[in-house]
Amino acid sequence: MHNKARPLGAHHQPLCTRTQQTATLLLVVATFFFTRLLDFSFSRPYVHSFSTDLVHKSQSFLPFTDGGDLSWPQRGYGVYRDLKIYVYDEDEIDSLKELMYGKDGNITAETCLRGQWGTQVKIHWLLLRSRFRTRKKEEADLFFVPTYVKCVHMLGGLDDNQINETFVKVLSQMPYFRLSGGRNHIFVFPSGNGAHFFSSWATYINRSIILTPEGDRTDKKETSSFNTWKDIIIPGNVGDDGMSTIMVTIGQPLPLSKRKYLANFLGRAQEKVGRLQLIELGKQFPDKLESPDLKFTTPYKLERTEYFEHLRNAKFCLVPRGESSWTLRFFESFFVECVPVILSDQIELPFQNVIDYTQISIKWPATQIGPELLEYLESIPDEDILRMIRNGRKVKCLWVYAPESASCSAMEAIMWELQRKVRRFHQSPETFWLHNGSIINRHLVKFSDWKPPMPLP
């Protein structure tokens, strides 16, 4: 090839061969993908990667560590959270305090913190200290409405009608609730009644996010207040509610070889068919199943420490439904390390984005409670029981409402779930918008000029 330039013509030869062209093209493609790979790596926070039997192999999950800590799965939740939650102050809305402390204000948060329904208080307090809390309504993705209505109702602070009237009054003072039709507002209903404590829930908060251990209708209600699209199943209040003190008192979980019973059910019958069947089954097979007919009064009741001493003395803890599909017994079983056997067909379990429950529990048809259940449990090898116990040991941190500094807790998982509920845009039947993006009501009043109380649907 001469250095002298040649005129381009019909017989002009290419400047490089086909092989050289192919090599150049491959180099460009390789450079492109390598650059994209580097961009992807540096744009994401560092995440450990390893595998686990607790999750489906077809999904890109991250595993549980041996210490019982849980690293969040990329597909189940993600690796980065970015949400802002506004928590209504008890003094900013007239009558909100009544839903927290009763009509006379003589019920304390500390009183409501204890017991099965303490999640109402715990979630509120943890959100107040959360790094995701914002004090600016205009930048909030979600709004949390603190109420302790289960506790207030149980202690006589408000009756059913008063709760309903007070809820409506409170909601009518929230412009941002009106703006979204309640879609970005969060309520906690932690008992068997679910949102039914607010009897007009279906009219006013049917679009809102409800945190509840309930996943179906209760026995006493014709309709369900739970919606799988918008609501979140949460653990009951058990993990840190004096559990550590009790476990120190009763000692470490017993080895399988030293457990007296194959299975147990330690609860009141409450005239529920499944529970009555277990009590009768316990009478038939007293050496295999501990299932006494417990009552609220002595000598037919177990104190809390005594209850856990009995609970840990079986390989399997039976979990029938009560007034509703869920029961604290499911969560308690993980702390005494017996395998929970769910006998509640409609039950919904928390955090199914990250937990494969087939690896830590058994679900048996409630219609098949009888000798065949005990025969099946008896056929399970101890090594399989121990495997399920080990797996359960790694996820029980998800039942504990711990501070945000804990890398694994019920609250941490709830925050991930809430992020999945965040929407870029909300609307309601009473909101409208113009070409310049301004929001108006049906009377053409701009959102910034809305004055409470506002009519609700």
TrEMBL record:
<keyword id="KW-0735">Signal-anchor</keyword>
<dbReference type="GO" id="GO:0000139">
    <property type="term" value="C:Golgi membrane"/>
</dbReference>
<protein>
    <recommendedName>
        <fullName>Exostosin GT47 domain-containing protein</fullName>
    </recommendedName>
</protein>
<dbReference type="InterPro" id="IPR004263">
    <property type="entry name" value="Exostosin"/>
</dbReference>
<keyword id="KW-0808">Transferase</keyword>
<keyword id="KW-0328">Glycosyltransferase</keyword>
<keyword id="KW-0812">Transmembrane</keyword>
<comment type="similarity">
    <text>Belongs to the glycosyltransferase 47 family.</text>
</comment>
<dbReference type="InterPro" id="IPR040911">
    <property type="entry name" value="Exostosin_GT47"/>
</dbReference>
<keyword id="KW-0333">Golgi apparatus</keyword>
<feature type="domain" description="Exostosin GT47">
    <location>
        <begin position="82"/>
        <end position="369"/>
    </location>
</feature>
<dbReference type="Pfam" id="PF03016">
    <property type="entry name" value="Exostosin_GT47"/>
</dbReference>
<dbReference type="GO" id="GO:0016757">
    <property type="term" value="F:glycosyltransferase activity"/>
</dbReference>
